[in-house]
Each structure stands twice: as structure tokens, then as C-alpha cells.
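name: query_chain
kind: protein
chains: 1
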Amino acid sequence: MKPKFVNVKNARKGEYKKVIEQIAGTGKCPFCKENFKYHKKPIYVKKGTWFLTNNSWPYKNSKYHLVILGDKHKEEFAELTVKDLASISYLVNWAIKKWKIKGGGLAMPFGDTNYTGASVSHLHLHIISPKINKQTKQAKVVNFPIG
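structure:
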């Protein structure tokens, strides 16, 4: 059985779902360095084998939706090394400082995509900061699916 790098059932509607369906047909991981051609945004900074970019298809109500990706295919949290975690930490802090992010959340789906809700099995970390409702001065809800 060939590896499953994307889970079409977990892809959101519209253009994103069409791209994930196309990727599924290739049988290749879209986040691995040699296949990283579907992404539409610039890479801002690299640290070690990890890099920071915008999400090409940001979640509704997010002011910032950044993604940290590694060059090497890993799917389980246990595969991360101390060096990986240091690079990820550096990139998170770089983004917070660069965009003066006042608050938000970090999410890293890991493992079986039938449990995570992720559309791509390759480990990746989301940095999400919501838009603020101008009337209430409260954050708008950003839904990040898990499961």
C-alpha cells in the first residue's frame, strides 16, 4: 500500500479542496522540499531545516495565519529533535516580533489525519492570530478543526 500524504476528506471546500485532490493523485507529499510547488506565498525566514511562510488558504477571521514547515518528511511529534524544536521556537518568536502579534494560538497536527483533521500528514505548525471586531474590541473566532 502506498503512503497517504494527504487526506482529501479533511480539505476545506473550494480551491483548496481541488488542490488537495490534485496532490492526492500524485502520491507525493506537497510539503516535502522536492514537491513544494503548490504553495503560493513567499518564504520569510529559515532556521535549520525549517521555514516560515503564510498559509496559502488562511482560515476565516484570521489576521495572521502563518505556517512553519520542515524540509524533511516527519509525521509524528516523537520524530522531532531538540534542534527541530529550537528552530520552531525561533521561527515562532521571529513571527511574533516581526508582525507585533499581540495574541493568538499555535497548533501542530501530528499522526493519523483521520484523528487530526489535517489535510496534509507532514508535520507543520500553524500560528494563528484573529481579527478584532471593531465594535466589541474582541477577537473574532477562528475555527481550527481537530478531528
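note: The beta strands are 43-47, 50-54, 62-70, 105-107, 124-130.
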